[in-house]
């Protein structure tokens, strides 16, 4: 017959494990005088569980069962009298030994192998009674019954076996993982879609070219890191705006600054000697009109020779400040514009002036784009002060920057910034017109070059290639597609912020070997 019943038997450690499962609290039992509408099932009333027990099968398990199911105090077990085959006695005795308080009642209606042990109230409105079947090793948890015990046929139970109990835990974990994955994918898609849209529809301002570097030299020996640059004294702090190159006549200093001025510093006082452009000044976009004096040298008769990134080559009287244009950037040289005039060097007699044009495409205000693109449109040029002619000595350079004529005036050194090397061009002697590498694979990207008092050359690094360490430019050199993505998404100002703050000046011998170096790992001195 279709009865809801709880079968409990002795089955070793397994039933103990099963009794350790959490039991859902049921509703309170009906009053004792009420007749049961159905055979007994488990019912929790207050602090007690009322159980239906199969005859003769409790055995020595009853004390453990009672201890498991009682809530704090003792559990009251009311067996029914005169139940068939002595089933009550066989079950009641071990329960009594375990501390249950006995009581008399009558047997419930019907007969069968299952004899209920319960109070007279068997018609309790149990929501989810627990049924345990030892022989089948299953645990049944009834579904909610809409009409309580009046319902003839119980809702179909859910079966939990030993295997699928662990499976249920796995399913719960799987569900949590699924929720996490869905949430993560939603966030990822919400970011990726706009990103791909930007990559597809935004223009890239550059056409980057792949280049390759050797592994940077180890910073050991003459390149050993130190803090010598921190020992330098700061002069005229916050009074000069980006001085680039410095020249002197005796104790008088001359320099060009970012606000387009040629300044004269004498007896500790700063004055404006000349101005090559005109206002407004102050922003990157103002540079083409404001002007940006860069390289500056002292020529014969103590005259100044200055190159402006936007205006060209000039001669300036150091006393009166009178300006005389020599080479205008508005006039193309051999079919190409002078877009970024950078530095100059000259012979002692002042006849020849050698200067660099860093790019025929990019202006100084876009120098970060020039570096990222790695374009090879830079040139070394020669100006003859007598014939007024300009000719190209070297071309195909990647960001030619500082230049320096050798003490014997037989060659010119050119810092090729993007390639982290210094090129040499012979201007006299048997090698005239030839070129080679003076220093390659430098520990940084060279900027200006000047003679040292010991017969070598000082080289300032615009950025370093630390080894050990990480160099962003080395990493990106052979990945032009990454450069495109960066320049589509980030401004030049943002890109520049990724340049490591590390200052470095190196002294080279007259053969190009490293003599010594001055470091500031924290970048206290920047943009040397």
UniProtKB/TrEMBL annotation:
Stretch list, region Disordered: 146-172
One Pfam family named in its UniProt record: SSL_N
Membrane topology designation: Single-pass membrane protein
Domain of life of the organism encoding this protein: Eukaryota
GO MF: arylesterase activity
Gene3D superfamilies the UniProt entry points to: TolB, C-terminal domain
Protein localization: Membrane
Amino acid composition bias (Polar residues), ranges on this chain: 161-172
Main location per the UniProt record: membrane
Membrane-spanning parts: 179-202
Record key words, sorted: Glycoprotein, Membrane, Transmembrane, Transmembrane helix
InterPro entries documented for this protein: 6-blade_b-propeller_TolB-like, Strictosidine_synth_cons-reg
Start and end residues of each Strictosidine synthase conserved region domain: 342-429
Protein known as: Adipocyte plasma membrane-associated protein
Gene: APMAP
């Amino acid at each position: 017959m279709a009865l809801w019943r709880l079968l409990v038997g002795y089955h070793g450690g397994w039933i103990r494990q099963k009794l350790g499962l959490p039991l859902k609290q049921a509703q309170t039992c009906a009053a004792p005088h009420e007749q049961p509408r159905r055979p007994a099932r488990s019912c929790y009333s207050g602090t007690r569980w009322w159980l239906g027990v199969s005859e003769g099968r409790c055995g020595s398990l009853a004390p453990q069962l009672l201890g498991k199911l009682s809530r704090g105090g003792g559990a009251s077990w009311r067996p029914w009298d005169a139940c068939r085959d002595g089933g009550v006695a066989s079950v009641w005795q071990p329960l009594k030994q375990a501390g249950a308080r006995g009581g008399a009642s009558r047997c419930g209606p019907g007969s069968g192998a299952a004899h209920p042990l319960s109070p007279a109230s068997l018609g309790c409105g149990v929501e989810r009674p627990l049924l345990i079947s030892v022989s089948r090793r299953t645990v049944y948890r009834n579904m909610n019954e809409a009409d309580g015990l009046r319902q003839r046929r119980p809702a179909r139970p859910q079966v939990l076996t030993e295997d699928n109990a662990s499976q249920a835990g796995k399913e719960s974990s799987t569900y949590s993982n699924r929720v996490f994955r869905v949430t993560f994918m939603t966030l990822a898609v919400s970011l990726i879609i706009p990103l791909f849209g930007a990559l597809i529809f935004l223009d890239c301002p550059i056409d980057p070219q792949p280049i390759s570097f050797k592994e940077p030299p180890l910073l050991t020996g003459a390149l050993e890191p130190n803090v010598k640059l921190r020992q330098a004294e700061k002069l005229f702090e916050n009074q000069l705006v980006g001085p680039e190159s410095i020249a002197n006549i005796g104790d008088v200093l001359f320099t060009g600054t970012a606000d387009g001025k040629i300044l004269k510093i004498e007896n500790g006082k700063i004055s404006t000697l000349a101005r090559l452009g005109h206002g407004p000044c102050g922003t990157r976009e103002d540079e083409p009109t404001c002007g940006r004096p860069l390289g500056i040298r002292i020529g014969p008769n103590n005259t100044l020779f200055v190159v402006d990134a936007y205006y060209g080559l000039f001669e300036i009287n150091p006393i009166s400040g009178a300006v005389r244009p020599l080479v205008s950037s508005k006039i193309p040289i051999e079919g190409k514009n002078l877009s970024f005039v950078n530095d100059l060097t000259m012979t002692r007699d002042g006849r020849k002036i050698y200067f660099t044009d860093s790019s025929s495409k990019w202006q100084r205000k876009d120098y970060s784009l020039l570096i990222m693109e790695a374009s090879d449109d830079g040139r070394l040029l020669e100006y003859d002060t007598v014939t007024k002619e300009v000719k190209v000595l070297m071309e195909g350079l990647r960001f030619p920057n500082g230049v320096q004529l050798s003490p014997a005036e037989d060659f010119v050194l050119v810092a090729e910034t993007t390639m982290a090397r210094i090129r040499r061009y012979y201007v006299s002697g048997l090698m005239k017109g030839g070129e080679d590498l003076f220093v390659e694979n430098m520990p940084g990207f060279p900027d200006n070059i000047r003679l040292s008092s010991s017969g070598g050359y000082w080289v300032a690094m615009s950025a370093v290639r630390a080894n050990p360490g990480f160099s962003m430019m080395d990493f990106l050199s052979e990945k032009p597609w990454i450069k495109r993505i960066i320049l589509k998404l980030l401004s030049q100002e943002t890109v520049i912020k990724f340049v490591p703050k590390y200052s470095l000046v190196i002294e080279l011998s007259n053969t190009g070997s490293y003599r010594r170096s001055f470091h500031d790992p924290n970048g206290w001195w920047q943009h040397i």
